[in-house]
């Protein structure tokens, strides 16, 4: 398909002014490593936008129409990330610096949190990374989702001691289950391959064919669009770079808890006495600039990367909030609340738990995906009440769950 839109000069100028100023501020506050992470996140934001690499939409389309392209792209991304992460996680270091993955115990908190996140990302019309890249590319509804994220994150932090006290199983990483980590790698890739085949089989049964990941359409490395395969490759490499720069996988939602904590503390709430904020390291971040917080800085980069991608593709359009029904405003805000709360219970979102956990060879990653899919089944039923459109089911109506 031939491109008809041209780059937008004024937004591009604005991007370089803001990104340049923020780069200087990040360098002054935190140094060159976090500055590099910021620009990696800009690339990630471009990849999410140009490839339209959705998580919420992927779950929804699979349930409603049987289309599995996005889910299969998820598994491809996870497999590539696992291969890239493996040598560093197996050694526990990278170029002399300690490196560790996201490995989280599996208990009721994880299951409930992932389910609530699944409901929330359908009401919010996007996941955690999706909210940032949608907002950066002009969807102003994302502002309400981000406010909801902060509220839900604070509620999750406040209730976290209750959820953490419940029984949980800590199986560890698949790299430690066997005498050789290479066997763990092989079996983990086998699991991802099996999931790929399962969702492809469901699509074939429901639609009679399997839509290919690579389509014959015009793409451009700078102006877009990108294929899902190209997007998965860039996201996997970007995830590796963040692992090497930060010593841990890519995360998103911890920043929303921090932003909400700063706002609540400014309003007089004693948040420093709450679970997560009572941690000395996190309590210190409450008093520091957000430019010293790696997750905040990479979130800013993700937002600006989507803005850049939209401006390069001539697709930057801002929604007029006044023309959006109040029920949609309420729905996307509540979606943000549910995602913020769910992410704190599940120790992550579609990026930190689903991608980061799976790429860290932790069972909580795939399990997060299963329960987020269950939450999606409820969320798609609530979307019409918020005047959010669903993809049409194959024979009318929603699939039974």
Automatic annotation (TrEMBL):
Primary localization class, coarse: membrane
Keyword Transmembrane helix assigned: yes
Keywords: Cell inner membrane, Cell membrane, Membrane, Transmembrane, Transmembrane helix, Transport
Membrane topology, as annotated: Multi-pass membrane protein
Coiled coil: none
UniProt-annotated location(s): Cell inner membrane
Top-level taxon of origin: Bacteria
Transmembrane parts of this sequence: 12-30, 36-59, 71-90, 102-121, 142-162, 182-202, 223-245, 300-318, 330-355, 361-382
A UniProt-annotated Pfam family: Sulf_transp
UniProt-listed PANTHER family: INNER MEMBRANE PROTEIN YEDE (PTHR30574), SULPHUR TRANSPORT DOMAIN-CONTAINING PROTEIN (PTHR30574:SF1)
Similarity section: Belongs to the TsuA/YedE (TC 9.B.102) family.
Protein name per the record: YeeE/YedE family protein
Species of origin: Thermus tengchongensis
